Amino acid sequence: xxxxxxxxxxxxxxxxxxxxxxxxxxxxxxxxxxxxxxxxxxxxxxxxxxxxxxxxxxxxxxxxxxxxxxxxxxxxxxxxxxxxxxxxxxxxxxxxxxxxxxxxxxxxxxxxxxxxxxxxxxxxxxxxxxxxxxxxxxxxxxxxxxxxxxxxxxxxxxxxxxxxxxxxxxxxxxxxxxxxxxxxxxxxxxxxxxxxxxxxxxxxxxxxxxxxxxxxxxxxxxxxxxxxxxxxxxxxxxxxxxxxxxxxxxxxxxxxxxxxxxxxxxxxxxxxxxxxxxxxxxxxxxxxxxxxx
Length: 293
Known about the structure:
By secondary structure, the chain is mainly alpha-helical. The protein contains 14 helices and 2 strands; from the N terminus they run αββααααααααααααα. Keywords: Cell membrane, Membrane, Transmembrane, Transmembrane helix, Transport.
């Protein structure tokens, strides 16, 4: 009995040591900063260096139309970017998971990973080099006679959307491949044997089986798009009007950390609500989605 007790204590100590870095990371970089931000967001400035508890910082968000419209625009653009990313990533993931074999499969997956070997900042600057007025695309079209003078392709919603899809597509492809990989090919063959066509099999077999991967990918891409700052700011310019730019302005430009914290929690609550609604509408749970995605 004593030996078994010592063995159990050793196992618990080993488990604690293994997960200690993870718990420290969660506590120091996620939980404690968010608690601090929550406290800051509830501190209402009534005079220089005089604060009182209240929801005035949150009321400032609802009282200014520009903030509400910025959040609504960010939400709609993020939903659109998620839908486009899913439409682009699904055929890619299906080809890699079910059609490609051997080296071709590995090369295609590596091609998806390759752009993510550099930071998001470098990737966005790559788009700027291509699309600015004196960039590669404009110069090429002028030299071919398609354009009479250089054109600025940056700083509009279309380019922001392209940038969001490009920077987050891998996070849709990976969970989709993981889900589709577990789909037994015999189920697809049985579908054809029973008289189904490609559209029927896609709707009745492939999509239901891949639903956990679809939901997991949509959650990650939506949250990445909603909280993105670099891509909308650099590709959209001043017309970007992304909500994270409003948060940046409050923290960095106006040094108003109380309002910036409140805006950050409004964004967090919005993303959490959308994820919850998405899980309810698709009949998925977070644990099952993350487990299979």
